[in-house]
Design goal:
alpha/beta; Rossmann fold; Helicase, Ruva Protein, domain 3; two-stranded parallel ribbon; 17% strand; globular
Length: 333
């Protein structure tokens, strides 16, 4: 299969997945695109929004459209790491003897929904760190590899903070994108009511198999990035580091810490997926800008002044996108 055919196959799979999700999810096109971008890039997604906006439904629908095992984990304060990873249990063998046998936990699936992840204790949240980053778990004294591809979608509610444990910055950085789920418009809400109160349920077809998804994820890594486009992504990330020569003025004023190197990796990989989805085999400046918000918003740490004035990371990113020129020559001049 030549490059043109590979690009066409990618576009078809991407479009079919988006269409299948659209049978159930009303609106939220930007959120669906961000979710699919992270999926094809091999990253994880954190969905943040108030209850009832369809976060869990989105993940479940994606699981139905992918022909891969899907597990849902409801995070609660009493959830233990062994409830996620699994544990050794005593089993009786055929000869009447007893031996330990590892019972796999729900983490051993291709697609994981971590529902209300901020309701679990830090001890349980940390059990996800190794799985998300290393694609493996250490349980029962052994290291066990997780099946590829491995994709985690976590949800959290930003308004109900009683009895919750905010995710530490180290774990937030493991997420490829942080996506904000907003309220639907009036027309979208009417369509939601038509679909959910009429007694009918849309049937979601399985459109992408594991082997095909793995192949398309490999194709993403092969998309070339021009030097000047990569340099633009680097300068965007460096502009988030306060009190440095490359810092944007708004970063120095409102940030304690800027983006990690994972932010730059996310910009490039997200841009590659967006380029393929639009039928291009090269990344443009627009691709980098389009993924900047979900890629960076959870990697910027606000200072006290920003929190006191109600400054959001999205506002800072918007200003940085205006401050950083696309050409490095403009900056040097």
């Amino acid at each position: 299969m030549n490059t043109e055919e590979q690009i066409q196959t990618f576009r078809e799979c991407y479009t079919r997945l988006r269409d299948e999700i659209g049978k159930v999810i009303v609106g939220h096109e930007e959120i669906v695109d961000s979710t699919l971008t992270a999926l094809f890039a091999g990253g994880h997604v954190l969905l943040e929004g108030v209850p009832g906006l369809g976060k869990t439904l989105l993940v479940r629908t994606l699981g139905e459209a992918l022909d891969m095992p899907f597990n849902r984990i409801q995070f609660t304060p009493d959830l233990m790491p062994a409830d996620i990873l699994g544990t050794n249990i005593v089993m009786e063998t055929a000869g009447g003897r007893r031996a330990f046998e590892f019972q796999h936990g729900p983490i051993f699936a291709h697609l994981i929904l971590a529902d209300e992840i901020n309701r679990a204790t830090p001890k349980t949240q940390s059990a996800m760190l190794e799985a998300m980053q290393e694609k493996q778990v250490t349980a029962g004294g052994e290291i066990r590899k997780l099946a590829e591809p491995f994709f985690v979608m976590a949800t959290q509610n930003p308004i109900d903070q009683e009895g919750t444990y905010p995710l530490p910055e180290a774990q937030l950085d493991r997420f490829f994108f942080k996506v904000i789920v907003g309220y639907p418009t009036g027309a979208e809400l009417s369509e939601v009511l038509n679909r959910t109160t009429s007694g009918t349920r849309a049937h979601v077809d399985k459109v992408v198999q594991r082997e095909q998804l793995t192949s398309l994820m490999t194709l993403v890594r092969e998309v070339p990035v021009a030097t000047h486009v990569q340099d633009f992504a680097v300068r965007l990330v460096l502009a988030t580091h306060p009190n440095t020569e490359t810092a944007s003025a708004i970063s120095t004023q409102y940030l304690r810490f800027g983006s990690s190197p994972r932010g730059a990796q996310t910009l490039l990989l997200g841009g590659k997926v967006r380029a393929l989805a639009q039928g291009r085999f090269n990344v443009s400046f627009d691709d980098i800008e389009a993924v900047a918000y979900p890629a960076l918003r959870h990697r910027l740490i606000l200072n006290f002044e920003a929190e006191a004035e109600g400054i959001t990371t999205d506002r800072i990113i918007a200003q940085i996108l205006q401050d950083v020129p696309k050409s490095a020559e403009v900056l040097r001049a």
